[in-house]
Structure prediction request, 583 residues.
Amino acid sequence: MLVANRGEIARRVLRTLHGLGIRSLAIYTEADRDAPHVREADEAELVSSYLAIDEIMVAAARVDAVHPGYGFLSENPAFARACEEMGVVFIGPSADAIELMGDKVRAKEAADRAGVPTVPTYTPETAEYPVLVKAAAGGGGRGMRVVERPEDLPEAMAAASREAAAGFGDDRVFLERYLPRARHIEVQVLGDTHGKVISLGERECSLQRRHQKVIEESPSPVVDAALRSRLGEEAVSLAQAAGYVGAGTVEFIADADDPSQHFFLEMNARLQVEHPVTELVTGLDLVELQLRVAAGEPLDIEVSLTGHAIEARVNAEDLRFFPSAGPVLLAAFPDGVRVDAAVETGSVVGTDYDSMIAKVIAHGPDRETAIARLDRALSQTAILGLETNVGFLRSLLARDDVRAGELTTSLIGTLDPPEPPLTDEEVAVAWASAQLIQRGDDPWQRVDGWRLGGVRAPSYWTLSVNGGDPIAIEHNLKGSDPFMLCSGEWIAHDGWAWHVTEPSADELHHAVGDGELRAPMPGSVLLVPRKVGDEVKAGEPVVVLESMKMELALNAPSDGTVTKLDVKVGDKVARDEIVAVVE
Prediction:
């Protein structure tokens, strides 16, 4: 079987294939040459892109079946048809079903015909604000923008269209009613080739940032047995109307205070990122069920939900949710819970693909226990070498409203960045301690002065934590925190990680200019709408960057003139690099 994907989902599919004794063929791009999924497959072939259907089909000619994972080509009907024409089994629904459900406009029409309530759609002329711009062929939060004012609509539609074209090869967008106080609840369905479709319960996915899920759980804390039955019936009705075969997810947007008031959002014709929570509460392997359905076996299973499961997505991003990248100096994951990871020690996280690098999933007899187990697991998770959101995830789980199940899709957007558990000075002292211990008693390596008799002299450091102002410390080594992990310039504690550097003399004296526009994330230059000499108003875009499928405009900080602009479309920029100056 060919696994036409990468990262943690490729490894997840490979795990089931190996367990069933099925030989596997992976594909990889040059950026993923040393990725774990390449090593774990029985064979692997290089392709120019995970979207290159022609190249992938050359590899597919050697296999019996193709599993597309999620993202990339998983919801591309042309890929499914190419498999059908070659006589290779596509592990998923038919091309016609993908085409129907993948087109958000046609999918809503199908839901209306199936009697499933739908969210109202608009034209630019009839839009009621706030309005949501959505990619017609999108998913995973890509190509989505919330627009508050009519004058902002053209730019939002253009940006969403670019993002959709880059992510899905389809630039069509449409407008939909935006519910500011809403829950996101979805139902996992599975259909066989004999016309039977079943529901495997619902998932609560309301904790999102930028329309992308952060924490998911099953069952939902606000769905009772009656509503669960109703949601399941609606999801099954839609899937049956579409002639759906395989694993899929019917997503609903619901009133935050009364989830019985809900509307069809979209159907994802594939496996979902958050499928592990359903697997843990049902005890079923969804990938194995996908394979059995594709082999023509009838669905003859009893579905029952046991306990509660909750999943946290570990993303390569800072506390502002800007993408991060770099080498993984150390990857430490917890025991006793499920971890689906794309990286390991020695991996390199670039900006070419999605920012999610791992998932940590916990199960318990009830929601309170599951949350406690997930929080403890995250406290034992450390990925050093780049910034991640693990500390943020712990701060989110600690909130009273989250623990009470009072969730909305807009909650994260209202929060201030959390305060780390240690001050910058405490981090600097801990890092200095780790350095002294690692260097040992070799007098040529020590920086605290060597004395006859072994009494250590104080050491003096000037350190910067996460690029902040330099901190001068005098340090007397008294041992290290046993719960600290340190590798190179990175140190971790309790799920949080910090980058500690020793600034050079030039860096100590460098002052950031008020008009400098610096890249807040590594990435590529997508647009350069201005040129040197242009007059700009405060808030107008000067450069637009793209990283990990996210688009970000660097806007003029004040009225002025563009005096420096050395980048062009396609250029790669590093984090904190000066890309323009407005004076």
The longest helix spans residues 225-241.
